[in-house]
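User: hey, got a sec? need Putative metal-dependent hydrolase with TIM-barrel fold protein folded
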Amino acid sequence: MRIFDPHIHMSSRTTDDYEAMYAAGVRALVEPAFWLGQPRTSVGSYTDYFDALIGWERFRAAQFGIRHHCTIALNPKEANDPRCREVLDVLPRYLAKDGVVAVGEVGYDSMTKEEDEVFAQQLAMALEHDLPVLVHTPHRDKLEGTKRTLDVVREAGVAPERVVVDHLNELTVKLVKDSGAWMGFSIYPDTKMDEHRMVEILRQYGLEKMIVNSAADWGRSDPLKTAKTGQAMLDGGFTEADVDKVLWQNPVDFYGLSGRLTLDPLPGFTGEAVTFEGNSVLRGARK
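Assistant: Yep! Here you go:
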C-alpha cells in the first residue's frame, strides 16, 4: 500500500507521526496553509508560517523518507479579520515557490461577504499562477456552503477539474461529482467522515476523482486514517489496485496539475515488506 496524504497539517504533528506514517506506506503528502487555532495579528506571522511550510517542514519530512508539498492561501476563517487581508499582497511571491502545488485552503467558514471577496481574489490568483485549488467547505450548513462554493468557482472561470472540494459527506458528494470537480473526504476519529462510511461512498459513487485524506491537525485526529481507509477498502472487497488509485494515483493526478510534484524516493531510504493489519505495505528502512 503506497499512500499520498493530500491534506495533513504536519506542523502540528510530531516526528513520531512521521515515522508511523512512513511505516504505514505514506511516501508523499500535501500540507495546506490553515488557521493555527488563535488569531494571527500581522502579515509577518503569515510569512514566517509560509516560510516554514516551504522550508523547515519540507526538510523535516525528508528526514523520515516522505516528500512534502504544500498549498498557500489566506484561509477562510481569517478572511473575516481585517488585520489579515494584507497577506493577499504577499501570496503571489509564495505561489511561485517550488513545492507549492495549489492555492488553498480557500472557501468558506461562515459564508460572509468578506469570505466571498477573499475567495474570489484567490481563485483569480490560481488562474494567474496556473495552479489547482483546494477548497474548504464550512462545517456548518455544509450543503448550502458547497452549493455556493461551486457557484463562485464557476463565476471565477476556474475549470472544475482543477478544483478539489474538501470535507465532503453523504449530503454533498453527488453535488460535487455532478459539477465535475474532485471530491475530497477527511477521515476523522469522531467527526467529518470515518473509513467505513468512506467505503460505502466509494461503493456507491465509484473511484474516479475521489481524494481521501487524514486532515490531521492540532485536535483529536489520526495521521494513519488514510492507511486505515485502505484497509477498510480491502476488507470491503476492493482490490489492491483500487486502493492504489484512491490513496495514490488520484491525489497524484490532481496535484500533478501544478507541474511541481516530486515523488522519487528520498536518498538513503529503501523499502522492506511488513504487515499492516494483515496486508503487505512498505516500511521505511535506511540503507
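Quick note: Strands lie at 3-5, 26-32, 67-72, 100-107, 133-136, 163-166, 182-186, 210-213, 269-276, 279-286. Let me know if you need anything else on Putative metal-dependent hydrolase with TIM-barrel fold protein.
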